[in-house]
Specification:
With about 130 residues, this protein is mainly alpha-helical. The chain contains seven helices and two strands; from the N terminus they run H-E-H-E-H-H-H-H-H. Strands 1-2 form a two-stranded parallel ribbon. Helix 2 links the parallel strand 1 and strand 2. Helix 2 crosses helix 5.
Length: about 130
Amino acid sequence: LGVYARVHFAGAATPEAENTWCATAAAALVPLAGPVSASLVPRVLAAGTPLVPFGDPAAVRPLDDWLAAHTGVRCGAPAQALAHALDAGPVARHALDRGRTEAARHVPDAVAERLPAPPEQARQIA
């Protein structure tokens, strides 16, 4: 991708550090060799950071399909996806807004609101 001098490998990090990095990053490049952590995608999108998956096409395709459905943008080739992610134009801003909206659906309170109420018997046990 030609960004080696500007890429930082974060490694394991505290949630606070990860949130700071996501919020200040121009883009989050996510190398995929298999399924991605389900919580990573909404955390990155909630920060308003473009997500650029790359790597094994079989691993990238499901995430790319999900991003296309929920942000309106298909990533495509990594270099193209990164260029699009760094674009501050109206299409990119709209995709980020849609990503933030989708991420908000995955915070614990929003998920809890969508869950059915437990049966009466389960409430008595708790």
